[in-house]
Amino acid sequence: MSLKSLVLMLFIASCFPAFAEQENPQYDAKLAAKYGGDEYGMKSYVLVMLKSGTNTTETQDKITELFRAHLANIRKLVDQKKLIVAGPFEQNDKSYRGLFILDVANIEEAEALMQTDPAINAKLLAAELYPWYGSAALAAYLEDSDKIWQKRP
């Protein structure tokens, strides 16, 4: 790095102190450790985009059966604390059906979990998996999510 570049960087940094890293006076080390957060309160997840699959030949009864099993699988993954967020999309022109955020170590572990989903195995749904970096506090969502629904789908 040239001296000119270094001086320019220092000048820019001095003009914008708000961009400098700051310590959080509310930081709770125990809570960060509980959720596996790094120094920024973040962690790695796998984002799963669920799309319409290639199977369009099933009967309505079979589709209903497979989607009931899909929902049961979601509950199982939540109980295992592997699935942090799940939900459907409204109808759209991209064939996106829903998403999952999985609390797993890597894409391979996420792929293995997706193979436990009957709707994916039957190709009613297809899963696209992406590494995703988000708040480690997402797991806190699970602590209250089971207390707010009146009717289970």
Automatic annotation (TrEMBL):
- What Gene3D superfamilies does the record tag this protein with? Dimeric alpha+beta barrel
The region annotated as signal peptide is 1-20
Instruction: List each copy of the YCII-related domain by range.
Output: 58-125
Superkingdom is Bacteria
Please provide the record's keywords in A-Z order. Answer: Signal
Answer whether the UniProt record assigns the keyword Secreted to this protein: no
Q: Which family does it belong to?
A: Belongs to the YciI family.
Provide the protein name: YciI family protein
